Amino acid sequence: METEESFPFYKTAFVLVVLAIIWFFRETIIYNSYKKYFAWISNKITENVKEGLKDEKTRLFQVLHDYKDQQEKNLTILEVGSGAAPNLSFYPANTKVVCLEPNQHNDSYANENIKKEGNSISVDFVHGYAEALPFENETFDIVVCTLVLCSVEDMKKCLQEIKRVLRQGGKYVFLEHVGYENKKSWAWTLQCVMNPLHRVLFDGCETHRDTETYIMAAGFSDFSVNRFTHKPFPSWIRPCISGFATK
Ligand SMILES: C[S@@+](CC[C@H](N)C(=O)[O-])C[C@H]1O[C@@H](n2cnc3c(N)ncnc32)[C@H](O)[C@@H]1O
Description:
By secondary structure, the protein is of the alpha/beta class.
């Protein structure tokens, strides 16, 4: 009789202790698993996205080659939110690149991709956030940021930081998916409807940001933008902008 009564007690106590441990570490467990999942999923789609955007990126990154010729020196590039590092193959030879990325689970994917590229680029990895770039003022010739401003917490601060670490005359090169221009269209409404789910599935990525306006307001001296529709993306993240701004 005593054993029958004490058994549920110990069992219940054990379950409660396990639950308490999970509860105590809940943020670390959930946060880490989520970040791991996102690094895995973005690496899975990176190759397709890279292939789909190949022509656009080849055209966009020509600005790096032109800038290198103009400066007559090898470039120092900061890539913000580098993820699985899909842009390196577009950079000029002998470039020195610093890849800044907050999610450490991307490191192994990025390293694999760099090995595959096997070109003459030197790459350093730094963990950090675009809102607080851990670099001195005027450190880089170029800052590249692709498909990142949709996910950052404070876009204005990120742009200030990008401008701060660029040398005078340096270029900020961007490619982002953005909100549809017509805020009365069904397409824009769909972006708004899909936004909460998209945010959860893709690490805070927002579907309908007005990124162009923020870049224009960031105080760069020169600004060139190309608006295009990237058909392989689902319709709620199809409108994109790419271009560069000069400090
Ligand atoms: C959709 S992925 C794009 C990765 C890569 N730039 C590309 O073009 O494939 C977005 C990346 O931005 C990073 N990210 C999110 N918030 C960030 C922040 N505040 N500062 C820097 N990177 C951030 C994410 O960790 C992720 O690697």
